[in-house]
Design brief:
single chain, 283 residues, alpha/beta, 2-enoyl-CoA Hydratase, Chain A, domain 1, 2 domains, 3-stranded mixed beta sheet, 45% helix, globular
Length: 283
């Protein structure tokens, strides 16, 4: 698929690389990127031959690394202005409160839809991940960072609440409430080294090794059962909010019953006993 502000490169091996692609704006999220990102997630939801997604950002025109500077504030400031032919449909609501309500829904749909796709998402972060950029990194399943990565909860810096785009949901679960509270409330710049210590980053590597590391993790996931991997992501997503052990076990029991009926289950068992890599299809 082709988009205006992102690139989605589908590889033959079942890995897709999604690149935020507004390098001249440090990959800041504008109205078009919101539409593009949501459309990409809708596509990925039914793209059964894509098994893993690597999420990254295009480098700036001067070659400096970038993930995403967050929301494009210059464009966001136009929400209270008259819609043009190029404006999204929600800009045609008659007053600001309605327009902003629908804008916010479309923005946070990027998080909802990303969490809903069946593919594990590996965020490969170099440079600034601010605001929305920090949020989509946190909403990913696995995060690897280059040493230039910086994480900034920028929402609190612009006169609104610090909790936005799932930041108050994901960050406390990833690094603990105390640390997350300090980062969310202060909006300070957090280094990649600090985030690795907190367990937010699974791996920290030199910038020039970042994509290679993300791809290595992606290839290791390709060695797992396609259905088993989807059910694992589903279980982790639901059980982080499980009301208790019994509910978590019930979901796991259900998923294992489903997975064991697939041909992949037999292939995985045979491969284990024959001391070879399993041969799974893309589906």
């Amino acid at each position: 698929m082709e988009f205006k502000t992102i690139r989605l490169d589908e590889r033959d091996d079942g890995i897709a690389v999604l690149t935020l692609n507004r390098p001249e704006k440090v990959n800041a999220c504008n109205f078009q990127m919101i539409d593009d990102f949501n459309a990409a997630m809708d596509y990925l939801y039914h793209a059964f031959d894509i098994r893993i997604v690597v999420l990254t950002g295009a480098s700036r025109p001067d070659g400096k690394p970038a993930f995403s500077a967050g929301l494009d504030l210059m464009e966001a400031a136009t929400i209270d202005q008259k819609a043009t032919d190029a404006s999204p449909d929600w800009m045609r609501f008659p007053d600001y409160s309605k327009r902003f309500f629908h804008f916010q829904k479309e923005l946070t749909n990027t998080i909802r839809k990303m969490r809903a796709i069946p593919q594990p998402v590996i965020a490969a972060v170099r440079g600034a991940a601010a605001g929305w950029g920090f949020a989509i990194s946190s909403a990913s399943d696995i995060r690897v960072g280059g040493k230039s990565a910086r994480f900034i909860n920028a929402f609190i810096r612009i006169g609104v609440g610090g909790a936005d785009c799932g930041s108050s949901y994901f960050l406390p679960r990833l690094i603990g409430l105390s640390r997350a509270t300090e980062i969310i409330m202060t909006g300070r710049e957090v280094t990649a080294e600090e985030m690795e210590r907190y367990g937010y980053l699974a791996k920290l590597v030199d910038d020039d090794k970042l994509v290679e590391e993300a791809m290595a993790i992606a290839r290791s996931l390709l060695e797992k059962s396609p259905l088993g991997l989807k059910l694992t992501k589903e279980a982790l997503g639901f059980n982080i909010d499980s009301p208790g052990l019994e509910a978590a076990l019930a979901l796991e029991d259900r998923n294992q019953n489903i997975a064991s009926q697939a041909k992949d289950s037999k292939e995985g068992a045979y491969a284990f006993f024959e001391k070879r890599k399993p041969k799974y299809g893309k589906r």
